[in-house]
Design goal:
The complex is a heterodimer of chains A (149) and B (391).
Chain A: E1 14-16, H1 24-31, E2 35-40, E3 46-47, E4 62-67, E5 70-79, E6 93-100, E7 106-111, E8 125-133, E9 140-147
Antiparallel strand pairs in A: 2-3, 2-4, 5-6, 5-8, 6-7, 8-9
Chain B: E1 8-15, E2 19-20, H1 28-43, E3 52-56, H2 63-69, E4 77-81, H3 89-102, E5 108-115, E6 130-132, H4 134-138, H5 146-161, H6 165-179, H7 194-199, E7 202-205, E8 207-208, E9 216-226, H8 227-230, E10 238-246, H9 269-277, E11 286-289, H10 294-303, H11 312-315, H12 318-321, H13 335-339, H14 345-356, E12 368-373, E13 380-386
Parallel strand pairs in B: 3-4, 3-5, 11-12
Antiparallel strand pairs in B: 1-9, 1-10, 2-9, 5-9, 7-8, 10-13, 12-13
Classes of the chains: A mainly beta (149), B alpha+beta (391).
Chain lengths: 149, 391
């Protein structure tokens, strides 16, 4: 079996759920290949990033709703300077901020897969790509993005 | 209206030598003490009269230690502005002034000491192998440093308003131009041309190397007293005409979910500042605007109402931004880009020097100076100083 390949080096900082459990359902869902976003049972409002209370109606009754992994590029950047030791000698990479119209317009962050020097357009459609790191301790899954076909 | 306007003044300013990152020959706390004594000397105040301290960004040098070290008879006010990194610079001045106006203290020092070479650098990733909380949503994707955190705000803003790279370039060129006349500036003797800017490497698009602040070692301090007392001291007082801090609705929504995303965070703060001062952009002689990244300065100037975003390409040209004759002289000491990244507090000092007529890039007859602290973070802050004529 060949070593898994990741968009950025495996030695980048690994995400771990917060000790108080706030974002644990999100990270658990990504392990199943699902994208989940907070939604309020009282007012049906969407919320991201996670918080313990609904910012619209102040209800504590929040749930985690599965949403389709598609969105629109809201903004982006191409990083060249290696700020982390894992990135030394690495190619540039693209970070995208992706708006999810089907989830109240919340925004998600990930890398745009493909050529790191590709032209990026605000408003372009993208699809989520799950990137499992099964060999990490503990394992985790990142959510990356690819331009829609 | 409840207001601080005209009640408190900056009586003294001081700083250490400004060093390149990692080159301070002394520990950070010693730099802080030197800057505080320099500001007292400038004001003509016995340091034993200090009875309060205000700072920001979790400055490591606690007031109780400073008070003990300086042998202060009594500590009456000790204040830390929460969060916001360099966004706390003007808020710290506002907090100190509020303490004086309220009677908590009589002589408050605002200071910042930063020897990044002795501690974790802002521009490098922290060494942890894991990321939790908001960082879990960003660090694994290589969205780590401040430049990376803010680049997407500026990218969206430039896209929305058709702003060209040259607008950011003009801000960098103005700072470097002013630094050439300022012997304190770390970049004194290191001029920057438009060609050198264009040839510089990308840090993270849309920021080139020269769009990003330096990292430095040093300390800076200001001494604040009541307006009445300031009139009896050595220097011409710089009166605080207004201070405001904060940020708009849900600015800190995690994972880049602020509703007003492409912003310097001043959309609600700046109108309150102008209202308190009873002034508008046309009354301002000179602006010091915190350059973490040039795009943040651009949005700050728009949000403080100097021009519309659609006018940015036309307004932001070097000749408009340079002293003495530009329409809006900007960062006349060289600022965070070229004087020193003293976490922005060198900007407050320069604003005071302009009003005294002591700047190395003096704007003739300067009577009102605006200082904008830490764009794109939350909370941000800004303040207005004026001469006696401006009261």
């Amino acid at each position: 079996m060949s070593a898994p390949t990741y968009h950025l080096p495996a030695s980048m900082p690994r995400p771990v759920a917060e000790p108080d459990g706030l974002d644990a359902p999100y990270w658990e869902a990504t392990r199943q290949g699902e994208l989940r976003v907070q939604r309020c049972r009282s007012c049906q409002g969407w919320q991201w990033g996670p918080e313990w209370i609904c910012h619209r109606c102040l209800s504590f009754d929040l749930t985690w709703e599965r949403v389709e992994g598609r969105g629109l590029i809201y903004s982006w950047e191409r990083a060249w300077h290696p700020v982390h030791p894992a990135l030394r000698g690495h190619r540039p990479y693209i970070v995208v901020l992706v708006e999810l119209p089907q989830a109240g317009g919340v925004r998600m962050i990930g890398n745009l897969l493909g050529d790191p020097e590709q032209v990026v357009s605000i408003g372009a459609a993208v699809d989520a790509v799950f990137e499992p790191h099964d060999d990490a301790t503990p394992p985790f899954t990142l959510v990356q993005w690819r331009k829609s076909a | 209206m409840r207001t601080i306007r005209g009640r408190v003044a900056v009586a003294g300013v001081g700083e250490t030598t400004y060093y390149k990152h990692g080159q301070a020959p002394e520990p950070e706390v010693k730099l802080a003490l030197r800057a505080i004594l320099a500001a007292c000397e400038d004001a003509g105040i016995d340091p034993r009269q200090i009875d309060g301290f205000a700072s920001y960004s979790n400055d490591r040098n606690e007031p109780s230690r400073l008070a003990a070290a300086l042998g202060l008879p009594e500590l009456r006010f000790s204040n830390m502005q929460w969060g916001g990194g360099g966004g706390g610079g003007s808020a710290a001045v506002g907090n100190a002034a509020a303490a004086i106006a309220a009677g908590y203290a009589d002589c408050v020092v605002v200071f910042r000491a930063l020897a990044q070479g002795q501690f974790q650098r802002f521009g490098a990733a922290p060494p942890a192998a894991t990321a939790s909380g908001e960082a879990a949503l960003t660090f694994p994707y290589g969205l780590i440093s401040p430049a990376q955190r803010f680049a997407m705000k500026v990218m969206r803003y430039m896209h929305d308003h058709g702003i060209r790279q040259e607008a950011q370039r003009a801000i960098a060129l103005a700072s470097y131009h002013h630094a050439q006349a300022n012997p304190r500036a770390v970049m004194h003797g290191r001029p920057l041309s438009a060609e050198a800017y264009d040839a510089s490497r990308w840090i993270v698009e849309p920021f080139r190397l020269f769009d990003c602040c330096m990292e430095n070692d040093g300390a800076a301090a200001l001494v604040l007293v009541s307006a009445e007392r300031a009139r009896d001291l050595r220097q011409r007082p710089a009166y605080l005409l207004a201070a405001a801090q904060g940020s708009e609705y849900r600015n800190a929504a995690r994972g880049h979910n602020a509703p007003t995303y492409a912003s310097s965070s001043f959309t609600t703060v700046a109108p309150r500042l102008w209202e308190m001062a009873g002034l508008g952009p046309k009354d301002v002689s000179v602006v010091q605007s915190y350059e973490n990244f040039t795009g943040g300065v651009l949005m700050s100037l728009v949000e403080h109402d100097f021009f519309a975003p659609e006018e940015a390409n036309e307004f932001l040209v070097p000749e408009n931004l340079t002293a003495p004759g530009g329409r809006l002289p900007l960062n006349t000491s060289g600022g965070n880009l070229a004087e020193c990244y003293m976490h922005g507090l060198e900007l407050q000092i320069e604003a005071v020097r302009q009003l005294r007529g002591q700047s190395t890039n003096q704007v003739p007859g300067a009577r009102v100076g605006l200082v904008i602290s830490g764009p794109m973070v939350t909370p941000v802050s800004s303040m207005i100083l004026g001469t006696e004529d401006a009261l």
